[in-house]
Amino acid sequence: MRKLALATIAAAISATFLLIVGPQRISMATTATGDPELSTYLREHPEPGFNNLTVFTLVQEKATFAGLGADEHTEVEIGSVTKMFTGEIAHQLVEEGKIRLDTTVGEVLEVDDAPVSDVTVQELLEHTSGLPRLANGSFFSSVFGSVTGANPYAGETNRNILDTAIEAKLEDRGTETYSNLGYALLGILLERVTDTPYEQLLHERIFKPAGMTETYLMTPGAVPENAPRGLTSTGRKAEPWEMDGCFAAAGAIRSNASDMAAFTEWFIKNGDTAFGWQEDEDNHTFWHNGGTYGYSTMLIIDPKSGRAAFANNDSPAGVENLAQALFDQL
């Protein structure tokens, strides 16, 4: 009953706010870019909430790009697809013998005898650590932020991450429970093991070798004033998810379709899907999606065949079905 009451209050607050500010209509862009056949497919398969779309398909190292209102060089937020970059850094460090999948948090970080001390790298990668989703998040702030577009990670630091992890009771440990906090903690662990900032690890270990020249991490103040802003579900511009500290390891990469195609080609040759990717056992593919208050992203890969599909929309309306449809046509 308490949960029901909280949900009812939150819904009332959200409804009141919407009545005050009023939602803005979101309509799909019509200006086509890139491959005519692929852009036509986008136009003919609209979904509610789609705005500006950018996509690519990849077959045997040949990428095909298209978009509506955006092209392969349009800057976007990829949200939690960032975790696949963090996972790949972990993969490299395991290969180099600097960490193991069974390395525990307590072996690397000063967490005393807190329950999190014996959580392993593998548990952090697979969301089975029992850590909560966020450090200081609440349901009310989440509802408010999703409407206003305010950055929910503003002001979060590595100290917040560590304090929350140390205090966590690890409820439902062993069960997959999605945790941005877990990946933030993994980011701190990777920094400590290498004595290298997470942003530098990204550049040296992935961006540079993959040839990603238009991609960057959204640290505070990193997003230019004239850079694109996504739209909230109410049609208002969302703040970029700039993040201080290692919460960035959970979802702070800004990229574009061109660079994401470069990453995908590079990953198929060098990466390991055992480090954080979700598996579609029916189709023998691997995927990860991502969402911020202003963007939705989906990346699907089949490392064996060298096929992949990527889609991004600059509103929270999900592109999972679109990416899957594009992949199924390959």
Name of the CATH architecture: 3-Layer(aba) Sandwich
Low-confidence stretches: 1-23
What's the rounded overall pLDDT mean? 91
Strand order of the largest sheet: 1-3-2-10-9-8-7
Percent strand equals 5-15%
Q: What is the quaternary state of this protein?
A: single chain
Structural class: alpha+beta
- Based on CA atoms alone, the radius of gyration comes out at 20 Å
Structure overview:
The chain has 330 residues and is of the alpha+beta class. It has one domain (32-232, 239-328): 3-Layer(aba) Sandwich (Beta-lactamase), CATH 3.40.710. The chain contains twelve helices and ten strands. It has helices spanning 2-21, 36-44, 82-95, 105-108, 121-126, 139-148, 158-167, 180-194, 198-210, 248-251, 257-270, 320-328, and strands at residues 32-34, 53-59, 62-68, 76-77, 216-217, 253-255, 278-280, 285-291, 296-302, 307-313. Strands 1-3-2-10-9-8-7 form a seven-stranded antiparallel sheet, with helices on both faces. It has a three-stranded antiparallel sheet with strand order 4-6-5. Strand 9 (296-302) and strand 10 form a beta hairpin. Helix 1 runs parallel beside helix 6 (139-148) and helix 7 (158-167) packs across helix 8 (180-194). It is globular and about 60 Å long. InterPro entries: AmpC-like (IPR050491), Beta-lactam-related (IPR001466), Beta-lactam/transpept-like (IPR012338). It is an enzyme of class 3 (hydrolase). Residues 68-308 form the Beta-lactamase-related domain. This is Beta-lactamase family protein. Keywords: Hydrolase.
